[in-house]
Write a structure and sequence with these properties.
two-stranded antiparallel sheet; 5 strands; 2 domains; 6 helices
Length: 182
């Protein structure tokens, strides 16, 4: 039953002429309002959002890549919301893996007498605050019905700037990250 039918049932007499056209227009407007309200219900969940995706990204302090498909942008919001945090190497390795990168982390140490051997790098004391991220490979997203939007590329991959921005944002403030791509 449409809203036009409900409006017609409100009157004790049958409507004719101009009143019928008014009821049809008002009913169509109410139908549109209900459809819009039902769409908003799906927008409240980040894994189904489309219209409010930019608001979800703003709330999560994300800056999406301009060419990123809908699926990637939704996944970034979900990952940010589910993030717990951590400071360990394993946390950053697992975090990169959830975004599709395989990384290893090297913590650099200064050369110390009694510990260092011939051939070891001669780093200064400040190197304690530097860690090197070795990146191998990249995530590839394929177009999928229901998860992607019309007009998007059939295959897309994250640029390295996404990983660099992610780790730089979450690293301990007193450290410096160096990226090594293999």
């Amino acid at each position: 039953m449409t809203h036009e039918d409900v409006l017609n049932l409100l009157f004790p007499v049958e409507l004719t002429g101009m009143h019928t056209a008014d009821a049809a227009r008002e009913g169509a407007a109410l139908d549109d309002a209900q459809t819009s309200a039902e769409r908003i219900l799906t927008e409240m969940f980040p894994d189904m959002t489309h219209t409010l995706l930019a608001d979800w990204e703003r709330v999560c302090a994300l800056t999406p890549d301009q060419d990123a498909p809908l699926q990637v942008r939704r996944n970034a919001v979900l990952k940010k919301l589910r993030e717990i945090g951590g400071l360990s190497r394993s946390y950053f390795i697992i975090l990169a893996a959830t975004y599709g990168w395989t990384i290893t982390i090297d913590e650099l140490l200064p050369f110390m007498a009694g510990w260092g051997r011939c051939g070891d790098p001669l780093y200064e004391e400040e190197v304690r605050w530097i860690w090197r991220v070795n990146v191998a490979g990249s995530a590839v997203y394929s177009f999928r019905a229901g998860l992607s939007a019309a007009g998007e590329r059939l295959t897309w991959w994250n640029s390295n700037t996404v990983l660099e921005a992610l780790l730089t944002d979450l690293k301990p403030a007193h450290t410096v990250v160096i990226f090594n791509y293999t």
